[in-house]
Fold these 4 entries.
Entry 1:
Amino acid sequence: MLTSLSLNNVALIKKQEIEFESGFNCLLGQSGAGKSIIIDALNFSLGAKAEKGLIRSGETSLRVDAVFDNLSQEEKAFLEEQEFDVEDEVIVTRTLNVDGKSSVKINGYPTTLKTLQSFASMLVDFCGQHDSVGLLNANNHLSILDKFAGEELNELKVAISEKCDLLKNIEKQISSLGGSEAERARTKELLEYQINEIENANLVVGEDKELKEKFDFISSAENIFEKVSIAVTKLSDQTSNATGLVYEAKSALNGVSEFKDIDECRQRLEDAYYEIKDIVETLEDIKAKTEFDPRELDRIDSRLDLIKKLSKKYGAGVEEILQYLEKCKTQLEDLENSEFMLEKLNRQKQELETALKQDCLKLSDKRKVAAKQLEKQLMSQLEDLDMKGTFFKVDFEEVACSKKGCDLVKFMFSANKGQEVKDLHKTASGGELSRLLLAFKNVMLDKEKVQTVVFDEIDAGISGHTAGRLADKLANISKYTQVICITHTPVVAAKANAFLLVSKNVVDDNTVSVVESLTDEKAVIEVARLIDGKKDVSQTAIDHAKKLFE
């Protein structure tokens, strides 16, 4: 449960440490005093959207620390899973700067907002007039019913989930084998076409690169022939050609080769002579082979176009195309040998679908039993809240089996006897929704695991005898879980066992809100103020407040 809340620079609150008790905690104070700031701060500390407007005017940041103790086993298990130190107490810290950046810590260790929000859902349940909107969303109704039904459904839900996963896996295998007979025929035809198209091309690994080189060479044949001819002429075809000149230079040095340095030069000239002769022979060979053949160029161009076309379909380059060919052959072979496997998988699928349907129907039967109990208990709660003549019903519609079962559930409601029962969101007024939400909270007391429930003016628009009944319901909830309630209704406030007064003052030309823990005597005065509606409380109001407390 929430034991304390520390606020720094939050709206009108400069610095405040607020302590809470188990049972029923009541927040009192004039309208606008800042009661909602406390709820907003708690909500913020547990992962609500960070609003920069929450930062106190003139400050650059705010900080909220929320301390919880007596953690449940589920909460401790979550902390262990997230590798936090697990003790009986946990401190959640969240800060916000004016630049919009916020930070989150659990027991002093940084964590993500998503982790905080997951943890917070176990700690506190916020219930106000606007929170009853969740009841209006039909998408939530099945989960609410299942939560009410409790652990009795768990075994069946696990079995259904496992069967759905198995069924999905079998369908995936069937699909990989071509699916239905018609799908398999289409897949087989496509594979055969692709195999034939690739095989008819008679591709050879590396030929695309070789063809590209040939194409570039033939395209440049005239230029190559001209340049090579010039090079050959310079090296060997003139009187003063390079080969002859090098040879003559070498021969001239023969007569003085007894000198070491000269002999080395002569040797190098001899090597150069033979190197040049070899170059000439190679160039002559290139020259002889260089011929511009337009037909060969067209053939190579057509071949390259074919490879390019196949590359767009089956892979980049000849090697990848041939790899795809092997893949197609394997898939076609599997298809041709899949009759037995498909028969087996389809038989398993049919058996699994039958078993899944049976489990879903069993789950539906259990839900319908739980729905009758929910209807009975909820209508009893609503009668206690002066909503006699109302009618609540859980409507079932059978849908295709899934992990959720085969039920589409909607809550139906009629506020007055004799009126048509309609979807909850079409009939319930704001005050009726508040009482419905409170009725649900009482019905779900032993089903929900949160240890703190916050009621933010859930009694708004409710008065008289009904307000007294609502107060009894809140008091009943506080026997099972910690209740924090903002109220302006005297009879509701009088049911609390701990009181916090929020007041607004002006200090040094600055408006500040402060929170004070009240003694029983002061609590009587503040409840009397709610009755009297005056700054100076009358004795009559005080006497009335005392009777409410008694």
Entry 2:
Amino acid sequence: MNFFKRVLSTIVGLTIFVALCFLILFLIIFFNANASDNLVVVKKNTVLELNLNQPIEDYGGRFDYSNVPFYPNTPQYDGLFNIIDAINYAIDDDKIKGISIKNNTISAGMAQTKALRDALISFKESGKFIVSYGDYYSQKDYYLNSVADTMYLNPVGFLDFKGLSMERMYYKDFQEKYGVKMEVVRHGKYKSAVEGYISQEMSEANRKQTSVFLQSIWDEMRKEISVSRNISTDQLNLLADELAGRTAKRALEAKLIDKMAYEDEYELGIQNAMGEHTLINRIDIYEYARHVGERKTTNPSYERIAVIYAQGQIIYGEGDEAMIGQGVMNKALKEAREDETVKAIVLRINSPGGSAMASELIWREIELTKQVKPVIVSMGNLAASGGYYIACNADKIFAEPNTITGSIGVFGTIPNMHQLAENLGINAEQVGTNKNSVDYSVFEPLSDEQRALIKEGIEDIYDLFTQRVADGRGMTQTSIDEIAQGRVWTGNDAVKIGLVDEIGGLDKALQAAAEVANLSEYDILELPVYEKDLQSIINQYTGGYIQTKEEILREELGDKNYELLQKMKKLTQMKGPQLLLPYEIEIK
């Protein structure tokens, strides 16, 4: 009897302890959410520290916590354009004396990096300093950091400057060996998202398109680095061929950097530049971005431009800040369309594409919106396949020179384990009432009739896709087919072939939207607003100690393996034909 009493008392004690922990957690959340003394203070003689190691999305997000009454619906200030706004604001902030970029390993795409670089150039042209230090520089780091007045490199560091490359994996032999394969149906000779499943080596068409867009991006990088470092583009190519940055000494001799120094010497250089007796204050870019964002006020007399962010793979469903779903997107478009203070819309797209059905539903909502208000598209790192589908009917399209776009093609994949099942002695039998009543089975080979039906669907979607593009771009369907076939283009090349109107970032798109809406002054309304629940808040304040299954997997597998698992998961979740970029583009 005493044993059961002790067990019961232990359970009661644990229950009370857990309840108290949650009560304390809620009190912390409540007071943090309602605190009025946590504003960022910027002191005089401040250096803005640009630390960009965390993944950067275009949009930090606005979140609706309406189901948690005491929690404010405040926006996040960690998006790409929050950072750019902060850099632009710092130009006229007398307390900010310069920018330090230190040990930076930028986690952003090429177009995002260019947008940041352009903002830094504007800051530098204002007369304020930019200095940079690295233990090593990757090529993307170097591209960004090359705007600095002075570049420092650790004496035992290195600079990775060798030209751009990409790698693809091919699984045909693997599938045949283990008896698990992907049944593939596609349209577009360049639509190589599925090439790895049907071949053991890269096709000439894929090699051609990859080589062309890599060269286009490399040419743009060299051109901009050439201006900043005063080294000719031809010389930069030669330095890349010679791996001239492979040691700090060689990088200095090649004038790729300005000084070899350790971090303490770098800090001493900043101190000497600002004055030996000057007390230097520092502020992180994300803190400063919050400072800037919290001080932005709207003018009730101003009309507005809505900026709607479409970031992530396109899925059929609601969507969130990481995935584009027709639910969230169409709600945002409808809100902007029906808001009388909104006079124009800029759709910022950063997507490799995805679900054909969701892309069509978003296209339709844009078409309805365009009849009421002008819609301008700004392309980020990617606006390819389905990402281009939702852009093609806009009134005007802007892209960065190194934006990846196009990829107008369609594919479908179905997993098949017939050979594996046969090897294991498994046989599946089907019975049905009609000729086509039996669904496709992963344990049976894809029949000719089934393949023909899938092919018919793929061809119908490709025909619709090219027609949508032709109508949106004022071209013939035949001319679109010639530049489609799943081929990928950079922003620069897309302008030449008519898929994009002008080169420029979000600022250019906003300017165009203001002009077409005849606005001299305006405020910006950022959308979508994402609905969040209590679990999201708890995770924010517990640092992940109350973990979701995804967070536990990431912790156990590591980031790289978790990302590989997520890629495999996405492949298995694809339903229906896909308008997706040929492959995940990771430029090295």
Entry 3:
Amino acid sequence: MVFDKIPRIHFRRPAEILVLSAAVVLFTPLSWFRMGPAFSMGPAFSMGSALADSGQGWLDLSLLVGPEYPCTWPTWPRFQINHYERIGPISPYNSDILVIDGNTGTQLDVPPHSVALPETRLPNAGPFGSAFTDRIPAWQFVGEACVIDCRDLVETGPDGRSELIKKERILAWESRHRMLGPGDIPLFHSGFSDKHYKPFPEGRRFAADPVEGQAPAWPDPDPECMEFLASRKVMALGTDSPSMGPLPDMAEPTHFAGLKHGMIWTESATGLGALPPTGAFYCMMGPKHAGGAYSEGRAFAIAGDPLARRLVDSARKKNVIDLSVTLSDELPVWWPGRGAGNGRQPYITVRFGSNPITKTAFETHMLDSHAGTHLVPPAYALPPEGFDGKIYSQEVQEWLGEYEKRFGARGASDMTAEKVPISQTCGPARVIDIRHRLNTSGKKSWPASPAITVEDIRESEKQRGALRPGDIAIFHSGWSEKYFALFPAGKACLEDPLNGKSEGWPSPTPEAIFYLAERGVRCVATDGPTLGGVEPKRALMTYWALGSRGMAGVEYLTNVSSLPQGAYFLFAAVKIKGCHGGPGRAIALY
């Protein structure tokens, strides 16, 4: 994606001019699935090799995203993070504004990256030109990892040129292992990202120097290899190079050769050498951007049976459900706050430049780190060690005193998104039906959220069995399925409940969180917009309870009513350094 013209920025609404101007100031320089508890308080990120996660056989295959790393394409607007909301007198929470586009870190390409919309009648138009990130079927994100060793092709050619991965290499791999087919995900392992993904200035060697012709480029498949894989009915690939495209002039032909068949792939994976040649379960997924031709994402694998085998089997049968809300400027995906001036960064799509291949604008996004389906790490509401509680507002100081009198010390944490192990946010799905809590608060009490209590959880256990360590507790209210809609109808999802015009979504009490922690649950999810609900005091106490037990939250699921009993839940947030939330994707296999 090299372009040599200064991009023009196109705004959807006049208000975006003000928001972007502000940004410039802010940012300029069940049993067969179970593998035991999946919880760790230790750091969970690595630069050049796969991370062995806290659960047996879990491997994080994603690059760390941060401004000091070469995480964006060298001719692209750089990734930025602004810790604009910090725990203190104004807010009891930490949150961040992200400026991030789909070509950031470990990333997902989908067909519209190179395939134009059918109605354009361009030479590269095709039926998959509308297969955007919000329309790709969830089964395509998962499959069996088939690792193809390409390390002999690294740095053997001239500067600015890639060595080509030919179909003969695939045939040789097949002769040693087995024939590739549907449900397989070939992963091209060269070790390129392991070696060259480093902070700047060394990080220029990862992408900028090869693009400039100052260093040898990464190995990648040629178009003939792509066509051969398509003939094997392979629908997903991966590479540990910055792009699934050989330099200097075969990137687009290779992209189109695969994407025109409806393929998707991972770019900039890392640590692929830790995987066995076959047998591991592989997943790559990213935030569900409406109309997205690519997406920042998270790649991981599970090596070891019986879990890997069972998940691969589900993937081959396409037994996969998408549980994520769509991210769009026209949908209620960000926190509007109560009244005026209390909202967080809106989700905004910024269009710039022009893709000469598809005749569409490139896109980047500005969003709060808690937009859409997202992660809630402990450091969202817990301050770091040594924090002086007197810095809180007087009102929050009083709430803290009440909390600690009832529940004990609030605690402290520096566990941001990149430190939450993927294994902690994945596990057997335990749906707790709390739909009976809807419409149970009196109008005079609004703004109010009905409380999800310990009794609700115990009643669910009576019906479905006791919760076990490693289970993902998912509160099912049906809220997002009912109220998540385009504006103005979408105001009923967040804005109206926050302002007392309607009842809020059900949310757990601190006691309910402590009960789940005692059961060994380390991740709690909801199909409501937040776990905290609309009442500030109880919401904060709920988040303190989560953080004090080292628990992670996943908020704003949808389609939970489609989850069959015994499903396995997968959630992964983008691996952003120091992020106090984390946009991501949730799916389930059954």
Entry 4:
Amino acid sequence: MEWLVELITGSGIAHSILVLALVISVGLLLGKIKIFGISLGTTWILFFGIFLGHFGLEIDPNVLHFLKEFGLILFIFSIGMQVGPSFFSSFKQGGITLNLLASGVVLLGVITTVVIHLVTGVPIATMVGILSGAVTNTPGLGAAQQTYTDVTGALDPNIATAYAVAYPLGVVGIIMSLVLFRYIFKINFAKEINTLDDQDESKMTEAHMFSLQVKNPSIFGKNIRDIKQLIEKEFVISRVLHSQTGALAVPQTNTKLNENDKVLVVSNLKNIEMIEALIGQRIDMNREEWNKLDSQLISRRISITKSEINGRSIGNLRLRNLFGINITRVNRAGVDLIADSRLQLQIGDRVTVVGSEEAIANVEKFLGNSMKRLREPNLISIFIGIALGVLVGSIPFMFPGIPQPVKLGLAGGPLIVAILLSKFGPKYKLVTYTTMSANLMLREIGIAIFLACVGLGAGGNFVETVINGGYTWIGYGVIITVVPLLIIGIIGRKVCKLNYFTLMGLLAGSMTDPPALSYANTSAGNDIPSVSYATVYPLTMFLRVIMAQLLILIFL
């Protein structure tokens, strides 16, 4: 049995993996427990890690530090890859408001910290540790420790201890604040989803199908190419029913429209009125009626799986001329887009193709349509992104009055790079597509490793610190956590009229708190919190790091 004792009490690789797996598995099992209908989910991994750490079960500090940072990188990077395509549009539709509110959370947290420091006399270095733990910001802790050492030439262990003491209730405080808002504002999830759908401008830009009858004399006898040049709007004519011959055709660019011809148009709700004014009146003729007119024409969705198609525009592929088919819609991440000739296709897109069965079969071979290829993870883009993220996060930025350079760190850098890669990668032939299940697996593994390591690292001195007066630090941390969230949360909901799902992501992002985001996503049942989280996270992370250093420099 000596081998078992050595495995449990030793310090080797096998011991580290065993302890990590034990903390994660038991924490996840505890996370299934609900109290008053509420479960803290993956946060239990942190608490069980503290529990085992208190009884002396530990991992080599260097290994622990590596695993913690690597887990955080995996979690943050997978979030960035998922929400990247929505990040920029979200910023246009209200990101300025979200970032202002998140900055308000940061500023109120700093003001609360300074007030507690002045009232209680707790050293500012300790208060910065409490602040970093209360807002669950590890980079801020590292920046504060480095700045303190540079200024004094010594280490202050109370910074890390205060962080460890405040961190657990910081996580709980953020999540409990989200739960509290749910009851304060009497949130009805179904109503929130309906309201969000009504306010979602993307619904106006999604592809819809309309049937029109040609009535405008000025376009009689003109071909589709000339007609499309008359207005700068995105629309596709999917099929034409010629009134004179009764023939149904997949239109080419040189297909002419004549009086009383019927056309099936794909466009969005914003453009349809102008298109109707150009072509003619709308008629009540649904897609099924079009399909019955000619059994030789079929419609099929084909997945883009060939890497050489990635980043190329629909017009550049010339599919209509080569195969005699028409692409009417492009489904990307569950949203139907208009198949405009300028739209660049990406791996994982599903295009709706109309044409003869033989022509569609040929297009299918050209575009790929291999589900096996989509299931294969694109590890190259993931690890290139992580490498670039670490590089960006390590770049020092100098600011007047701050002696030490400020960095985005191992969380901010990968997040920014992931957002940029997922948005712009296909333009540079980089395949960034990852299945939802693969992304979710990467995300959950990352957050589980991160929480387990934080818990094991904080457990050793946790109880001792609390008994010897550190319990007051817990109270200060709770105040720093809750007060800014309550103030900004009420302003965000009552003044800015934010949707509850968006508000949860905003508050989690303003605290740079992955567990709170995980809880928000689970509660919402969608990824709306992730979008607002990613919108405010980069600026918030930057402000957290700067403020931690400024507090040390100004008050020390």
